[in-house]
Amino acid sequence: MTSIAVGADDAGASLKSHLAQYLRDKGYDVCDYGDGDGEDYPDVAVEVAEAIADGKHERALLICGTGLGMAITANKVPGVRAATAHDPYSAERARKSNDAQVLTMGGRVIAPQAATKVLDHWLASEFEGGGSAPKVEKMKAIDERHRREQAGA
Ligand code: RB5
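Above: the input record for the complex with D-ribose. Below: its predicted structure, written as tokens.
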């Protein structure tokens, strides 16, 4: 079964717990990186994003107050594509068009029932390739260019 990492800060802890239980009930292999425990959203997001980049999990779900700080931080890790979505269509397109391995949502933005629906659409969608593939390849090339520049190559 797909391995899904989940993580939150204080503002996202309650929604994260709800969604993590939902995922477990559906049979997903859920790896819980916690609720921050006094840490800030960048601390949780970078740990989870690095685990995604290292191939430890196929997907990740990150929850903070708005979902924005988690996405901004996760997208700083090369190879990670994180998208904030609070509606089913955006969640679906985040997979189909953008091949986002990480979904972020805001515990202060969306109610648990609506968040579950958004999560369902994201889980049910896969990258469609086709015309979207060259665009995702361009994003990967940007990551590669920065990797090389940072290595001084
Ligand atoms: C609280 O730190 C809040 O700023 C955070 O949860 C998140 O919404 C940031 O993007």
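Notes for the reader.
Residues 19 and 25 are 10 Å apart (CA to CA).
The mean pLDDT is 96.
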